[in-house]
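Predict the 3D structure for this chain.
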Amino acid sequence: MTDFIKKKYQKLRNIKLNSRAVIFLFFLFVSTVFWFLNSLSKNYVTELTYVLRFKNYPKKKILVGKLPTNLKLKIEAYGFTILKHKINPTQIPIIIDINKKLIEESEKSTKHYIRTFDLKNEIQAQLSTKIKILEILPDSLIFQFSEIVRKKVAVKLNIKLNYTKQYIQKSKIITKPDSIFIEGAQNIIDTINNVYTVYKELNDINKTINDFIEIEQFKNLRYTKNKVKIIIPVEEYTELNLKIPIFVENIPDSLILKTFPSEIMIKCIVGLDNYKDLNLDMFRAVVDYKSIKQSLNKKIRVRLTKTPKEIYRYRFNPQNVEYVIEK
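Done. Predicted structure below.
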């Protein structure tokens, strides 16, 4: 019975002690909060980092170096204001009007700078009225600007064309415009003679292409056009087979040269629109009597000296023929 009473007494004592501990911790917490709030209501001096953005670049100059990305402000502000910045460091960037404050180091130098002291009022106007700027670091923002040079360059296509079977490119690809102006620093412009379009692959082509394609652009250059129009004429084709007589050139009047065979077979690729217009007179196959001395055997080479512009490709056989000479 005595042990039971002792246990109950000990339990009640522990509960009493625990209650005191809770009360103590509560008042400790409340006093800490009041102390913290009181501290935040005071003024402090600290450094804050701000992101920079720029506007109004010099019209007759182009940037050739990296822009400054941020600056540090030594500020005086209430603890609440500083804490807000620390908790949420993402803030609206500071906008700097370059053209207003830019100083050229010398006429021949590309180096320019802005004294950050001169930006104090401009920056202060963009900050909270609860923040007072004491110092701006660094003391200068450095820029590299060069005089703009203009140059006309050709536009080169960077494309791959895959045609549907029995279709072919009918004529030269048209690029509009075929050249553009680029602007940039002299040392960069001097190395560029052409600009290229972005790579593009066209598949299953079976009709004329009218399309626009972007020009590949690089930093520190300005382009008068950012895309060009391309026209790719396309038509269906077929194969044409013709027998062409062989003519002899540079033979004396007292001699006769006969070839065996006396004709060649030519196979050519032609568009359907021009298929019916082709005839034998549009081709000329010849052998040259003067080349006999250079021949190591009793054959002479056949050349095609005339072909119509309407055909795309051709091949012929035989390319060498036997011959006899008669007086």
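The domain at 149-232 is CATH 2.170.120.40 (RNA Polymerase Alpha Subunit; Chain A, domain 2).
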